[in-house]
Design goal:
The chain is α+β, with helices and mostly antiparallel strands. The chain has 2 domains: about 1-45, no CATH class; about 45-99. It contains 1 helix and 5 strands, in the order βββββα. Strand 3 (about 25) and strand 4 form a beta hairpin. It is globular.
Length: about 100
């Protein structure tokens, strides 16, 4: 995040972020998630939601296969209980080397 960026967590008032916070954002700057635990009011799943991006994030000691399996499991549960279809298979992006 950049100092002063605004973020509205699900169920909480708007917060001002600082530059030491890790966020997931869109290319145009919409903050989707403050790592590791806060999702955005702007992007939460609603009754009329039609497309969902599932993100799993690893930490040292969690192997890549476990992350891929967890994403697949979430996708399986979502299609079973919520309907819809899977638009893409899970992929792994490993940016550890650049951190």
């Amino acid at each position: 995040a950049r100092d002063g960026e605004q973020f509205t967590p699900i169920g909480s008032p708007r917060k001002t972020l600082s530059n030491n916070q890790i966020v997931l954002s869109t290319i145009d700057g919409l903050i989707l998630h403050v790592y590791p635990y806060r999702d955005s009011e702007n992007t939460k799943v609603r009754v009329d939601t039609r497309n969902v991006l599932i993100v799993t994030a690893g930490v040292p000691g969690v192997d890549h296969e476990r992350l891929l399996n967890s994403a697949s499991f979430i996708m399986e549960l979502a299609t079973k209980y919520l309907g819809g279809s899977i638009g893409a298979e899970p992929i792994l992006i490993n940016e550890e080397a650049s951190l």
